Amino acid sequence: MNIIDELKWRDLIYDVSDKNKIAEWAKNKGGVYIGVDPSAKSMHLGNYQAYHITKMLRNYGHPVIIIVGGITGLVGDPRDPKLSKDSILERNNKDKKEIEANLKSIEKQVKQIFGIDKVLNNAEFYKDMSIGDYLRDIGKLVNVNYLLEKDVIARRLETGISYAEFSYTLLQGYDFLYLYQNHNIECQFGGQDQWGNVTTGLEMIRKVVGSDNKACCFSVPLLLKDDGTKFGKSESGTIWLDRTLTSPYVMYQFLLNQSDEMIETLLKRLTYLSKDEIKEIMKNHKKEPSKRVAQKELANNIVRDVHGENELKKALKITDAFFNNKLENLESDELLEGLGDKNNFLSPHGKINILDLLLETKMVKSKGEGRKIIEQKGISINGKIIESIDFNVEKKDSINNSFSYIKKGKKEYCLVKFK
């Protein structure tokens, strides 16, 4: 089996530019690249599918280069508003310092998580190029009519598109030409919504090198949730790969709560499990779906891949403690991590009455409801049952003089942080 066969059975190929060239590239284990724009300081779980593929490519013997978009990140790609709700204005208004900081962070992340050592900044491709050089050497390679036929550009014409965004595909196309000529890269891949940008590179290579070139590309289907939105976002926000933005425990919980309808697709697309292993997992899962066997395999594999075995063990420990109401088994840092995605409240004074706190955090709708729950011994602070409505939640009683947690009933929590 070569990489193309592997990607096909995992449903990870959407479009292919030329079947014969792709087959030859796979046979010869040719070089390949994918790009990432520094729109944030971290990649997120929605990006994981594509960069997970880079590990498979490398395991099959293909040299891999990651391009971080120092120049393309400043411009912003003409995304289809139907597939992305990101503000175009917001993306284009990021300053150079923010882009530079994001670049360094993502470069480090790519190397640590995906093990790709060769990471290039495409700003380097243009540093000695004047605007005249750009227009002469790049702009003349692609006809405007060719660009207008790109789906993403055609759709944006209805709502408006800036010249900068219109030019984005030229920049990405030149990346491919530059890598083909200077780094022996014969293939590019990206998400299906990037197909127009990906194939522009082929047009440029054809114009410069000729039709007998070895360049090819393929796209990967978007990973969408049941509701049609992009995978990688929860009710509380984006699931980042950076543990300082999203803890391994929160990532684990997000994956553990994926639907039965999606789980086989996710196992195929986001893990390195073999066809037989996935078949066996799904067989066991269907016997007792409530045990979430398949979801646990998904969560175990991804958290281990992104954060390592120790962080996975920690996430499992926190999960077990919250599920079995044994929070006393957790260390303070583990407890804080487990409470991180719960209702959060910052106490401005270091002291607040329990009824006021319950109302402020919306754990109750009224003080009357709060009184009733306290009388029924349904409220606890740091594991201690609260028996009086006059009780004050204070910083001096907090864990590590930093935080406390309220528990209402069996499953509802609130994290109280003190200044």
Provide a descriptive summary of the structure in words.
The protein is of the alpha/beta class and 419 residues long. It has helices at residues 3-9, 19-28, 45-59, 72-75, 88-92, 96-114, 131-137, 144-148, 151-157, 163-182, 195-209, 248-256, 260-270, 275-287, 293-307, 309-323, 332-339, 354-360, 367-375; strands spanning 15-16, 31-36, 64-68, 119-121, 185-191, 216-220, 233-234, 237-238, 343-347, 351-353, 379-381, 384-385, 392-394, 403-408, 412-418. Helix 15 packs across helix 16 and helix 16 (309-323) crosses helix 17. It starts with a helix and ends with a strand.
Proportion of residues in extended strands? 5-15%
**Helicity range of the residues?**
40-55%
- Class of secondary structure makeup: alpha/beta
Rg, nearest Å: 25 Å
Q: Tell the overall outline.
A: elongated
Could you give a short account of the major beta sheet? Answer: 6 strands, mixed
